[in-house]
Design goal:
The protein is α/β, with parallel strands linked by helices. Helix 4 runs parallel beside helix 5 and helix 8 packs parallel to helix 9.
């Protein structure tokens, strides 16, 4: 296993901070820096990637995951709406980006498939976690009558049709490039969100996804917090199922309190999942990719979130040490 985090800042100061925490790898999501066209479109710029890789290397950190651009008007935005000339052009750009990742030694590409994506969190000061830390809360009851500004009504069959069209084009390219694709299952895992069917919101949906193309290039980013948000889920059993089939290509190792329709994204040691038992599951099936914190609470006098990040990374490293991975 490898300790990783997202590349929140691009500076010597932050790189040194990561090195001090013992972070070995990063997920790249610096789209404005790395993509060839405005709005995080086009393909990845090889020269910028090499500059960033060399810079990180001075701090003994390597890029391990690239997150395909998310959000409106980014690299594969139109593909989510179905087949079109614009979607086909975007898919070609994604394929070329994957080839670049493989050629530059980035083994994992994370991606998502949704219009509203992570949407519907409760804003404001009344979302306090332990000690008054600000946590991200989802409450489906408060969303009645609200819609994401770009919402499109889309049933499950249409979602699967659009998704598999993309997979048919992209997964063979990833396999040839030696890249593992890591799909982030739907967060929040509601049945619908702002009119969109959430087809990757359950064990059954996740299984259907990995079974669609039997390839080591087709796998999951197990976001453990998102997994725990699913109603009635066996968190450890689900991780074990996909891990034993070599379908876990990335991991957001985080915790939550509650499940859909209401949950809080808690401190790593203050949620419903026993994280030590979870770490033993990853160890048991021989997981070798990144363990990465995500969605950490906001602590007092910590505007950059470094205290929360350091706490989560330290906890992950301690668990890795206990199971014999450090």
């Amino acid at each position: 296993m490898k300790v990783a985090t997202g590349l929140r800042e691009v500076s010597d100061e932050f790189f040194q901070f990561m090195q001090q925490l013992g972070i070995e790898c990063v997920k790249l999501d610096n789209w404005k820096l790395l993509m060839s066209e405005p709005g995080a479109c086009g393909i990845m710029k090889v020269d910028e990637l090499r500059k960033l890789t060399e810079w990180l290397g001075r701090y003994e950190i390597r890029p391990y995951v690239f997150l395909l651009p998310q959000g409106p008007n980014t690299q594969y935005w139109n593909a989510r709406f179905g087949q079109s000339p614009e979607a086909d052009a975007e898919i070609e750009n994604v394929c070329e980006t994957i080839r670049i990742c493989g050629g530059e030694g980035i083994p994992v590409v994370e991606w998502t498939w949704s219009i509203p994506d992570v949407w519907g969190r409760v804003p404001g000061p009344n979302t306090a976690g332990r000690g008054g830390a600000q946590v991200s809360r989802f409450n489906e009851h408060l969303l009645e009558g609200q819609r994401h500004p770009l919402a499109v009504d889309m049933d499950a069959d249409t979602m699967w049709k659009n998704l598999t069209y993309f997979m048919d084009r992209v997964i063979p390219v990833a396999e040839q490039a030696g890249v593992r694709m890591a799909m982030h299952h739907h967060d929040p895992p509601t049945e619908f969100l702002s009119g969109e069917a959430r087809i990757l919101n359950s064990f059954e949906g996740m299984k259907k996804f990995v079974d669609y193309i039997d390839s080591p290039a087709n796998g999951l980013n197990i976001c453990q917090g998102t997994l725990a948000e699913q109603n009635g889920v066996d968190v450890l059993g689900t991780i074990r199922y996909f891990g034993e089939r070599d379908k876990v290509n990335h991991c957001h190792f985080r915790n939550v309190k509650g499940q859909v329709p209401v949950f809080d994204e808690s401190f790593i040691d203050d949620g419903d999942v026993d994280m030590y038992e979870a770490m033993k599951v990853y160890k048991g099936f021989g997981y070798k990719h990144c363990m990465m914190p995500d969605h950490v609470p906001s602590m007092t006098d910590d505007p950059k979130g470094r205290g929360s990040l350091a706490y989560a990374v330290g906890y992950i490293r301690a668990l890795m040490h206990v199971v014999g991975e450090l």
